[in-house]
Amino acid sequence: MKTTYRVDFAEELKKCVRCGECRSNCPIFAESKREPDSPRGRLALVKLLQDGKIQASAELSEKLYGCLLCKTCAVNCPSGVITDEIMVGVRDYLDDALDKSIVKKALLKGFLTRPALLQASFSLVKLYQKTGLNSVLTRSKLIEHLPETMSAGAKILPDVSKQPARGRIPEIVKPYGEKRFRVAYFLGCATNLIYPDVAVAGVDVLARHGCEVITPAVKCCGMPHLAYGDTATAVQLAKNNMKVLLSAQVDAVVTDCSSCSATLAESYQKLFEPGSEEYNQAGELSSKVYDLNKFLVEKTGVHPGPNPVNVSVTYHDPCHLKRGQNVFKQPRELLKAIPGVEFREMKEADRCCGSAGSFSIMHHELSMKVLERKISNIVNAKAEVVATSCPTCTMQLSYGLINHGLPGQVVHPVQLLAKTYEEN
Amino acid sequence: MAEKSQLVNDMEALLGQDKVISSKLERYTYTYDSSFLSQLNDFYPDVVVCPMNTEEVQKIMRYAYKHDIPVTPRGAGSGQTGGSVAIKGGVVLDLSGWTDIVEIDESNMQVVVRPGIVHADLNVALSPYGLFFPPDPGSSKMATIGGMVGNNASGLRAVKFGNTGQYVLGLEVVLPDGEVMKTGGLHSRALKSVSGINLTSLYVGSEGTLGVITQIRLKVLPKPPARGILLTLFSSLDDAAATVLEVFKNGIIPSGIEILDDSGIKAANKFQPDLKLPEAEAALFFEINGSKAAVDFEGQQVKEIAEKRAIVVEWATDVQRMAKLWQGRAVIGAASARVKEGATRIFCGEDVCFPMARVPEALRRIKEIGEKHNTLVVIYGHIGDGNMHTAPIIDPLKPEEVEAAHRVADDIHQLALELEGSTTGEHGVGFTRSQYMVEEHGKALEIMRIIKDAIDPKGIMNPGKIWVER
């Protein structure tokens, strides 16, 4: 199977000995209990495709899009099968191999017929429209089908009518005191439009930690495109972002969004041939990319302000941060360094919340089942605030809390840190 | 979409569409288990059904009996002999979604479960009561209790706690004609019973050939309050074997005694680099459990015995270190492929059992078999009861390596018989060992067949397993 996203299907697939260990940790299988919904089952289907025993089809596409790409199976696989990467690769293949209308049909199955689902997806769709990041949706003709009444559901979801972060953050923010680092803040689409306060807090906190912060005019990191097999667009986005970020002459590229940092640091290299100029650029960029929590804990040290934030906090690990980048201690260290914060670990903190970008739209019912378990763990942690480091996790967790009539608030750790500098 | 068969339509009418898996694509995911042979063949079931109560299983069996349709019960499909693969087509019963714990009878120390519950989940549920179900397959996180009963599984703690069968007090079974039978007494909660011929024991290890097990009453034990693990490394296999023997002779029965050979040690290090096992010919993991005083005392005794011959000895009682050590051993089955770049581990000839006294001889002979066929074989297993796991490491994309692996597996099975052992200590026969059954059992296999024919006269229950089809 020829794909742009580099996966050696034959070599990777033969590693799977079908032991079934992945059945024990896949959040989707935990809900469905059916082998076709297990990582092992999906891998077996990709192997059939690779062996030429079946052709690409809408049914196959639907099965392979049923994966959250949460990496839980991959990091726990005794044989080292990189199932999530294989899924991204095969989606790339399917995007080329299938008549697009078949892909659309598979993707949209069960979506257009459910008003609740449409309501739930409203904010994300609106975000996509506003960002011009609508190629996936345009290709799938989703936008054409959105009824106007959808806005009723938007009340329970984040307000995307806030002023975007880009208009609120100066192009260059000078450090408070002596300059220690020059940092590019990678402003992700969802943060910019849905949670602009996170970026405003993030930039301010970095400046307070001796950073000169620039916020370059980047485009989408490309994660949604990769997840939906649109590798051609992801390649264009990667080229643009690498050019912008590498010419910015910065010590580090920092982002509050775990999907953005995972894509910039890990996925770009998979899009180009080893040895090519772009591949080398991706490698150079990768070495500069930092999750915001990690940068503050490891590079600047955390220096909170004088005002305590008297609140109990639990933390949800985004999949792409913990399993994708091995960043899980740093957000906790940051939270525990904030005066007044009482940290309460939740059970299964690193279990996927079911959001997975737009998975919650395309597979809404399954996504909600996965979310149920997360909400239950949050409730049991008895914390007033949930912190996490991913805007789509934030959206999903907020949705879950509101749906359960729970008062909890979902924030990025840096927002709590920022409060310590605020005058009461 | 292909037109649905009459069988699929009828199953949907009996159970509802949501419990029937019919598309060819989805059915493919039921053509395999971990066995290499199942992966070389495409044994499609004609339909997969997911019953969630006894009545549904009865409906399926009545239908299958009437229409002479093969039925193959399946748990997690983590078996290694093709036991849960429908090699004659027909219906696969996916019981892995039926995970209920019917009752935890704390005061009588027993638990009643449905077949799909996973071993590790059962022990999590028992833990608040201070109880546990002792047999521990390395596949604890995926193996279902139904599958463990069907194969009389055991694993890492069999040396002290025995196999699954020793804990099964009674079963509810849907017979091939759809009738329901209870073994072990209709209303019994007795921990012992010699009332009548022991049908429970007949069904344990029968691999789904005599009916569908729909409920299991298990004896459980008080969870030992303390545990320790002694890691030892030896420069010779004989030293390792001699140490095990001396431990037993001192009256100590550890809850587990596990061995890794030199390549197993390498694989464990590759999977968990922080294990940092030094190079050696053999590593032994002794697990001691019981009261804290007993664990401390016996742990010290085993340590002193090991120190006479071992080159490295580490006694661990720290929870995290123990978990790491035990996991390093538990996942070696799948992780053993990591010793050779571009290769994978296959499951064939993988659980032969030797008499204790002949284990060192057996391990040397297995290495020779590997060399003879130019195939790397990683060896690990339960040296405490002679049950060895042999893992051929090959590139499955190279036909000559696949062919060599088949010869390795055949030679290993023959070796087990030659050394007065068994072709399978805990994984079962399935269809991958049926060719050895005549040689292993002689007349006894004929009697097994007579029993099978009496209970399943139409031969619809998991056909093609245990016996080579006539």
Describe the structure.
- The complex is a heterodimer of chains A (424) and B (470).
- Chain A has 424 residues and is α/β, with parallel strands linked by helices.
- Among the domains of chain A are: 9-99, Orthogonal Bundle (Fumarate Reductase Iron-sulfur Protein, Chain B, domain 2), CATH 1.10.1060.10; 302-419, Rossmann fold (3-Layer(aba) Sandwich), CATH 3.40.50.
- Chain A has 24 helices and nine strands.
- In chain A, strands 1-3-2-4-5 form a five-stranded mixed sheet, with helices on both faces. A four-stranded parallel sheet of chain A has the order 7-6-8-9, with helices on both faces.
- Chain A is globular and about 65 Å long.
- In chain B, helix 9 (237-249) crosses helix 11 (292-307).
- In chain B, the strands form four sheets. In chain B, strands 15-12-14-13-17-18-16 form a seven-stranded antiparallel sheet, sandwiched between helices. In chain B, strands 5-6-10-8-9 form a five-stranded antiparallel sheet. A four-stranded mixed sheet of chain B has the order 1-2-4-3.
- Chain B is of the alpha+beta class and 470 residues long.
- In chain B, a hairpin with a 4-residue loop joins strand 17 (376-382) and strand 18.
- Chain B has four domains: 6-94, Uridine Diphospho-n-acetylenolpyruvylglucosamine Reductase, domain 2 (2-Layer Sandwich); 101-222, Uridine Diphospho-n-acetylenolpyruvylglucosamine Reductase, domain 3 (2-Layer Sandwich); 226-335, Alpha-Beta Plaits (2-Layer Sandwich); 340-418, Alpha-Beta Plaits.
- Chain B contains 17 helices and 18 strands.
- Classes of the chains: A alpha/beta (424), B alpha+beta (470).
- Chains A and B meet through helix 3 and helix 4 of A and helix 2, helix 13 and strand 16 of B.
Put simply, the count of helices of chain B is 17
Q: Which strand order does the major sheet of chain B show? A: 15-12-14-13-17-18-16
Q: Tell me the total number of β-strands of chain B.
A: 18
Going by CATH, the architecture of the domain at 302-419 in chain A would be: 3-Layer(aba) Sandwich
Low-confidence stretches of chain A: 108-120, 141-156
Q: What oligomeric assembly is this protein in?
A: heterodimer
Structural category of chain B: alpha+beta
Shape of chain B: globular
**Biggest β-sheet description of chain B:** 7 strands, antiparallel
Helix content of chain A: 40-55%
Question: Which sequence of strands runs across the widest sheet of chain A?
Answer: 1-3-2-4-5
